[in-house]
Each structure stands twice: as structure tokens, then as C-alpha cells.
Amino acid sequence: MSVKLTTLGILIYAVMALYLAAGAALASRRRAALAALAVLGLADAAAAVILRALAAARPEFMPRYEVALACGIIIYAALALALAAGAVLKREGPAGTVLFAAGFAAAAAAFVVRWDQAGHAPLQNMFEVFLCLGMLMGPITLFCRRFLGVRLEGADALIGVIILFPAGFVFKAEPQRLPPALQSFLFVPHVAAYMLSYVVLAKAAVLAFLGLFRDRPGADPGALDYAASADRVARLGFPLLTLGLVLGMWWGKIAWGDYWNWDPKELWSLVSWLAYVGYFHFRYMFGQKHRRANCAWLVAGLVAIAITLLWVNLARLFAGGLHSYAT
User: Fold this and answer.
1) How far apart are CA 98 and CA 109, in angstroms?
2) What does residue 141 show for φ and ψ, rounded to 5 degrees?
3) Most Cβ neighbours (<10 Å): which of 9, 110, 113, 240?
């Protein structure tokens, strides 16, 4: 037996994961909501066979189809699994957990395939960044549940869908050579620290957003304390955000001769960091006296991160920045 790292082989493994997850969900009597996963798997398989035959007839198009099918179809499988997990996790039971785990496995498989195709850690462009973010959602959810006592896995599954959507439908998937500026030992730790912090702080922001409307401490002893949970998660994400900033300054000194160059990406990274510094200072000063203000601050922090990740990278206004290769 051998593992087939071809487009069709990887697609088959993705379909197997879909069937396995759907079977687990169907055992919990979620037939109406999740039977479509099997149909999706069959449709994907048929499309792959057709495109594979077309690529065989026109070999010059093979590299593009390989990239699109090997990475793209697994991302769609991860999207479907995460979305289904979000629906199932609204009720207690193992089916949602199984679906979520299968979705993470599919996203991790796409990440590994992309690494093999690109020949370097897939953290260079926006497609690879969002693929990495989607893969990290599973481990972050497990860590927060085990060590922080923060659950809400259904919301995490929906976060995964939102994160993977740009990778699946927006950004181009063609592999790119790593430019000389990124060929550094700091490339992986710097970007990975930021990716981890972004996922963690996105989870904190979602908890905080729910806390703006549902947080009623003491009303139900068994209910989740959204504001306190968001704070615990933010305390995990902020050191990672700080690590990413410090590693970036170190890398800037090596690459450009200065720790700080007032580049648009650097400025907005600093704005994001200062937003969370302000949150922790505000919470230290007032504690839980202004719970909704605490929650609003965490939501604002995620807005700053979104600007740093999307607007600064994609807007033509910043095309001449030192970090323009990240687009």
C-alpha cells in the first residue's frame, strides 16, 4: 500500500474524510442537515475525474489543475466539515467533535500538500496565510478547551469557515518562489507567531462580541461567562502578538539595517499591539466594572488586526511598502 500524493489520490482521501464525518453525524440523527456532505463528496469526485481527463488531454495545463484540485478541493472539504460541525455542536454529542476533527485533518492535509508544492513553508502570500489560519483553528480550540476552560466550539467552527473562505474562493493558489527578502531563519517563527495570535485573538473577539449581547453574570450559574472567557483567551493571544512584533523588529534590523522603518505594515502592527495594551490597561484599572466596554475593546482589537492583514496588504495605497511582497 502506498500513499498517493496526486490530485485524485488526495481528493479521494478528502472524500473518505467527508464520508467518515458524515457517518458519525448521521449516527446522531442529523440526517436532514448533514446528508448533503456525501452528495458534495460525490460531486467533487466527478468534477475531479473530468478535470483530470481534461488535464491529461492538455498536459500544458496540468500544473494549474494540480494546484487547484490538490489544495482547493481539500479547502472546500474543510469548509463543509467546519460548517457542518457548527450546526451539530449546537447540541451536546460526539458528532460535532468528530466533524470538527475531520475538518482540521482536511485543512492540515491541504497545508502539507501546499508545502510540498511550494517547496517552502506556505506562509508567503494571502492564500497561504488564510490556509494556515484555517488549519490552526482546530488546535487553538482544543487548547482553549483543555487548558483555559473555554469551549464554544460551534462558534470556532464558524470562524474556521470564515477564515477558509478567502483561501477557497478569493485568493489565487499558484505557488510562488520565496523572494530573497523572505529567505531567513526568522521567516517561519515570525509569521507563525502572528498567525497563532490572530486566530487566538479572533476567538477572543467572537466571545467578546457575544458578551456584548448575552453576558449576564449570575443569571445562570451554568452559562458561559463571555467577558471572562474572552479575557482568558486574549491573555493567551497577546504574548504571541508581542512575539511576532519583536521577531519582526529583529528581522528588520537584519534585512534593512534598522529595528523600525515606519513601514505601513509595521505601523498597523503597532496599532494592533497598542489596542490590546490599551485593553489590558483598561481592565487593570477598572476590572469587570465595565464588562461591555472590555468586550468592545477586544472587538476593536480584531478590527485593527483585520486592517493590518487585509487592507495594508491589498490596498494599492501601500503598494510601495517594504512588505509589499506579502500580497
Assistant:
1) 16
2) -60, -45
3) 110
Q: How far is CA 50 from the centre of its chain?
A: 30
Please say whether the beta carbons of 253 and 224 come within 8 A.
Answer: no
Distances from the Cα of 302 to the Cαs of 67, 74, 197, in angstroms? 31, 27, 11
Q: Distance between alpha carbon 284 and the CA centroid of its chain, in Å?
A: 30
| CA distance readout (Å), 321 to 14, 48, 176 | 39, 40, 19
Interatomic CA distance for residues 59 and 79, integer angstroms: 30
**3-state DSSP assignment of residue 183:** coil
Could you give the CA distance from residue 192 to residue 70 in angstroms, rounded to a whole number? Answer: 23
Q: Is 8 left (phi over 0), alpha (psi -120 to 50) or beta?
A: alpha
Query: What is the model's pTM?
Result: 0.76
Residues whose CB is less than 8 angstroms from the CB of residue 63 and which lie 6 or more positions away in sequence, other chains included: none
C-alpha cell at 115: 508545502
pLDDT along the chain (327 residues), means of 10: 43 44 45 47 51 55 52 62 60 64 78 83 88 87 90 78 75 80 89 96 93 70 79 96 95 85 87 95 85 92 91 62 56
By CB atoms closer than 10 A (0-12, 13-18, 19+), residue 81 is buried
CA angle 153, 113, 203 (to 5 degrees): 20
In degrees and rounded to multiples of 5, residue 263 shows phi and psi of: -75, 150
The residue length of the chain stands at 327
